[in-house]
Amino acid sequence: MATYAYTIRDATGVLRQGTREGENDRVVVHWLQEQGYTVLKVQQAKAVKPRSPAAGGFFGHVGLSDLVIFCRQFSTMVDAGVSLVRCLSVLGEQTTSSKLRRIIADVEAEVQGGQTLSKALSKYPNVFSNLFVGLIRAGEIGGALEESLQRLSTFLEKDMDLRRKVRSAMTYPCIVMVVALIIVIGLVTFILPKFMQLFLDLGMQKDSMPLPTVMLMNFSHFLTSKWWIVLLMVAAFYASFRMFVRTRVGRRTYDRAKLKAPVFGKLNHKICLARFSRTLSTLLISGVAILQALETVSGTVANEIIGDAILEARSRIREGDRIADPLQKSKMFPPMVVQMISIGEESGALDQMLTRVADFYESEVDAALQSLTSAIEPLLIVFLGGAVGFIVISMFMPLIAIIQSLTSGGGE
After folding, report:
1. Which residues, 6 or more positions from 53, have their beta carbon under 8 angstroms from its beta carbon?
2. Domain 171-412: CATH architecture, name and number where available
3. What is the pLDDT of residues 59-92, one digit of tens each?
4. What's this model's pTM, rounded to 2 decimal places?
5. How far is CA 158 from CA 151, 399, 407, in A?
6. In this structure, CATH architecture of domain 54-157
């Protein structure tokens, strides 16, 4: 978790400052408001934690697959009675990720020094999420670390499978779009100028050319002579967009747009619901308290709008309400999800109901991705064919006009 510095005003009107750890700034703001303070400012503290020399450089990548293997092997060795330090030593030798190997070495040194495993892992929030650390902490407290590791690896496998399905579904459309752009740019910047010069050499004036050809000529001239403007525009748009979504208003606007977008909006909503249900179910099964679980889940759904609805539900639960009621009022959760959660609360099997909801929405995401891929393929083919066809027709229209003029001139 990151550390946030805040400025507040208490009930007597006195200004106070302090720091608090949280999944994100929204979690810290909600916590302060629950304490009765007026929040004036919350921002991430610029504090750098000292790292052990054993950790070395932090270049490299730790993927979900590396963490899944780490959890599976860790669980097996802990269940077999191997000491914690020995487990970390073996895991460090077996992992194929150089970055994870350095982190495990540092964690091993921390544990040898008397630090708890969860506290040592929390030093690396970019690798071990709040969910990861929370489940490890629950396993340590409950004396069932191997079970927590098993649940964690199962959760990570499900999450990795969901990400893989989304990524694989988007791979083909992206490849087709890139190829289409390369073909169009190649035709416009290399082939078209040669045809244009040929038309001019044959005596055709630019004013007498068909409109599609003139439009294509202007576009080709712009790309060949002022291509740097295109690059600057793309870079400026990308930088502006990144700066915008880093603000709270920008992030909320972007997340709301993702939920409202045609076709993809429903898909994003289903992905968030699947992640919400799976994460909350995993936390509750591991014995994490409902309030702490909801705080963790709000930062893992990857959507500020749904995250705020979850935090609002957490605040209502603190006041004695049921979890289903505020989720229903937020209108971010479908009636089926609300009813399943309500039945789970009444029957005392909320974690099982959430698991069923997660399974349902993961299957829904899978079906939606297959339908989306099937629908996108013909659209992309039509787009590519239309773009190339427009260029070909624009290049041959003046040629046909020249041939007709030559034919008519020869007939005279």
Report:
1. none
2. Up-down Bundle (1.20)
3. 456 788 888 888 888 888 888 888 888 899 888 8
4. 0.68
5. 11, 59, 70
6. Up-down Bundle (1.20)
